[in-house]
Amino acid sequence: MSRNGRVLVAMSGGIDSTISALMLHNQGYEVVGITMKTWDYATSGSTGKETGCCNLDSFNDARQAAVDHGFPHYVLDIREEFGDHVITNFVEEYMAGRTPNPCVLCNTHIKWSALLKRADALDCEFIATGHYVKVREENERYVLSRAKDLTKDQSYVLWGLDQDCLSRSIYPLGGYLKTEVRQIALDMGYEELSKKAESYEICFVPDNNYRGFLKRNDPTLETAVAGGDFVLANGEKVGEHAGYPFYTIGQRKGLGIALGKPMFVTKIIPETNTVVLGEADELKQSKMLVGGLNMIKYDGIKDGTEAITKIRYKDAGSQSTLHTKEDKVEVTFDHSVNSIAPGQSAVFYEGEDVLGGGIIQLGYD
Do residue 172 and residue 96 come from a single domain? Predict the structure, then answer.
């Protein structure tokens, strides 16, 4: 009988999830490892090197760590569910002129759901992952907050987790720096693991070329959307583009057009296959509308709440005021921010704690 309970640990084969499992094992939890197969590398059509999770080497690394420490390990095939939901949404969002964040969708609707379902089947009280975040119970709610290592903090991509998920989740690395985790791996005798490179690309786009993925997913797409207009804010046509799904708000490189000064994508209009270009200051906006909300620290947002709002993963966050608009939130920034991209996540912070988040609907002044 374990001292602390039975926990199902998601193990990708990387350093963070492996060390999380071993730390919990050493703390007296009864650990069960599970590796989720979300996609087939061969089906991606990429010619790049297979990296990240979901490849055979990663599966073997996760299984070997479990064998070394005497706890069971399983592989869970969720390719069909992942493809139907995450990849379909990814394509649909770009076709709608938005910029999706598939990792948020996957965490919220696929991986944690699959973990909880399998945890119940295996009589596991808890689930755990190698994400750099913290969770605590406060005022009868489970609060998600930033990790000690702010350079690795992943609270932005977990804003969609509900209270049931958070109440059963353990994040062993929330109080550690990445350098400390690498040293722990070395101290445990996993020298190769301690030096293992990290993967930052979208798992089903291993070459980090989402445009190529869209073309491979639908071979007719490139022809169907080719020849649209590049225009300025006043409507003046300044060139032709390769198709609106292949551009994102704030993009500067790869436009294939020279206008004598740096130009950026400021707006995408899928109905007319139009991409609007502008100078850097035209990317600045002071307001945005956010929908699809999930609240974490409190069960709702009071009108006029002040918060730090992040509009992308690497964003430091900006001071803002939140105004309730029925089932949405209008965010007013103290100072205009750059490149508000519909489809991306907006996450609201109160100090180190996540108030909640949602999906950006549109940005405006």
Answer: yes
